[in-house]
Amino acid sequence: MKIGRITGTVTATVKDPKLSGAVLLIANIEDGEGTVQEAAVIVADTCSAGPGDLVLIVSGSAARLAASTGGLPVDMAAVAIVDHIDMTTSSKGKN
């Protein structure tokens, strides 16, 4: 899984019939500090995410395992809206 921030939506009038009804979003893949690692990837939405939302993104065959994307020709899917991330950034005293 990866962390992503939704930046927009995609409208495609002419598409594979299996994509009819699928919501497509644009996301930036981010690291834990919010730095963009990969810009403007297209994800199928399974969790009603919208612009500005931080989401968990799955890719490859895992993107087709979510209930609403099963059998769809997608390579990435937003599967959860993130409420909170808690990161320990200091490794002092740990060996």
List keywords for this structure.
OB fold (Dihydrolipoamide Acetyltransferase, E2P), 5 strands, five-stranded mixed β-barrel, mainly beta, about 100 residues
Describe this structure in words.
The mean pLDDT is 90. 0% of the residues lie in helices and 40% in strands. It has one domain (2-13, 21-81): EutN/Ccml (OB fold (Dihydrolipoamide Acetyltransferase, E2P)), CATH 2.40.50.220. The protein has no helices and five strands. With 95 residues, the chain is mainly beta. Strand 2 (24-30) and strand 3 (36-45) form a beta hairpin. A five-stranded mixed beta barrel has the order 1-2-3-5-4.
Mean pLDDT value: 90
Most strands sheet: 5 strands, mixed, barrel
Helix and strand content put the structural class at mainly beta
Percent of residues in β-strands: 35-45%
Could you give the topology of this structure?
Layout: E1 2-10, E2 24-30, E3 36-45, E4 54-59, E5 76-81
Parallel strand pairs: 3-5
Antiparallel strand pairs: 1-2, 1-4, 2-3, 4-5
